[in-house]
Write a structure and sequence with these properties.
- The structure holds two protein chains of two kinds.
- By secondary structure, chain A is mainly β.
- Chain A has no helices and eleven strands.
- In chain A, strands 2, 4, 5, 9, 10 and 11 form a six-stranded mixed sheet that branches.
- In chain A, strand 6 and strand 7 form a beta hairpin.
- The relative contact order of chain A is 0.34.
- By secondary structure, chain B is mainly beta.
- Chain B is globular and about 40 Å long.
- In chain B, 38% of the residues are buried.
- Classes of the chains: A mainly beta, B mainly beta.
Chain lengths: 109, 112
């Protein structure tokens, strides 16, 4: 079983819809990360959080440490939000990230 | 944007040849990472460095070696490339422990 699981794997929605992507993890973590990767593009860090909730523009990330679960929400989705969204966890110290397999999001106009 | 450059951006080579990928940063960050990204597997950690000459193995380190002789450069070497090492390779850097990682643009490596 993967240490970081994301759902759904693929999501197609209409412009303006509210989007939710889920992430569950099975190990102890120091922080959870949400990343964005556009087709053929690089990887951008959206959020790094260890508790509660963070908001940046139309994006909101929440984490429940007790349930080992995080969600990424996109409000008023737009075609430019189409990308792969990746959940990852860090365990502290120098260790690198452990990643989920990503959620491929397509927002249709 | 964080100052991180990967070179080359694309490379095609043959099985059995040595390959070195370079990650260069201008941020003076302590931590540097090499990941590979493959369909069906996502991103996986190959090696990482926590200072000059200080490196350690990640999840998929077999067949790879790294070196960091100065803060700004982290080299990934495939001593004898195999087709299973065809992948997209990303370098990442991080300053302090409570900061996110910043990724390079990736190197697309094809081994024929």
């Amino acid at each position: 079983k993967n240490e970081v699981e994301q759902s759904p794997q693929n999501l197609t929605a209409q412009e303006g819809e509210f989007i939710t992507i889920n992430c569950s993890y099975s190990v102890g973590i120091s922080a959870l990360h949400w990343l964005q990767q556009h087709p053929g593009g690089g990887i951008v860090s959206l959020f790094m959080l260890s508790s509660g909730k963070k908001k940046h523009g139309r994006l909101i990330a929440t984490i429940n440490i007790q349930e080992k679960h995080s969600s990424l929400h996109i409000t008023a989705s737009h075609p430019r939000d189409s990308a792969v969204y990746i959940c990852a966890v860090s365990r502290g110290g120098a260790d690198g990230l452990t990643f989920g397999k990503g959620t491929h999001l397509i927002i249709q106009p | 944007d964080a100052g991180i450059t990967q070179s080359p951006r694309h490379k095609v080579t043959e099985t059995g040849t040595p390959v070195t990928l370079r990650c260069h940063q201008t941020e003076n960050h302590r931590y540097m990472y090499w990941y590979r990204q493959d369909p069906g597997h996502g991103l996986r950690l190959i090696h990482y460095s926590y200072g000059v000459k200080d490196t350690d193995k990640g999840e998929v380190s077999d067949g790879y070696s790294v070196s960091r002789s100065k803060t700004e450069d982290f080299l990934l070497t495939l001593e004898s490339a195999t087709s299973s090492q065809t992948s997209v390779y990303f370098c990442a850097i991080r300053g302090q422990a409570d900061q996110p990682q910043h990724f390079g643009d990736g190197t697309r490596l094809s081994i024929l």
